[in-house]
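Researcher: Re-running this chain for the archive, since the previous output was lost when a drive failed. Same request as before.
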Amino acid sequence: MSTMVKGRDGSGAEVRHHTRTPRRVVEAEASWVACTVLFLCTVYVILDMDVLWSAFGIAALSLYILPIVSKRDPFQALPWEMTLLLSSPIILHISEGSRALSGAVGWWDDFTSLSFALSFATIGFLLTMELHMYTDVRMNRSFSVFFVIMFTVAISGFWQVGEYLSDVLAGTDNISSNSQVMNEFLWATVGGLVMGFVYGAYIKAMPRSRREVLGLIHFWEVPGWKRG
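Model: Regenerated structure tokens:
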């Protein structure tokens, strides 16, 4: 639905109002539920004095809240599937706290590593999206995919450095062997490659009406658009 309004200079400007359809309400509610889980997990790791995961949770929550605050619209929440991906590694980290799953399920460590990589890729995607929305930075589709892939691999490297420092300074046991570190890098590369191309196809395939509702209408699809 769109309406013509008069600007101060007398010119007409088209303002688009988005109807809060039942589907939009349900999607926003699902996204908020996933965000609530992320928030509670972040509070848990903060109270547990888990510095690395606290930083992860705060960064993820910040990227989630920014579009809502800037648009002043709670229905501007990120797609629920992206919020779920953001939440998954910290949920798995908490569930792994007893080491019971790691010891009983042979592929559990690989699964958590892949989930972590997918979440980092999602953060990289959100960064590209919000750079487009709030700055003058512009990336074409190919470079955006490349950015997501490289961001995932690079952040994984910094994360491993953080885990090593935590082991040395705080006496934790995050890194058990060099093989574990190489395994983490492998899954980060796989996850970054997969999600870089998945998110490229994801935005292209998303219906225009949903991109408008989510504030993604200008992202990658409309070259030369201007902010404001």
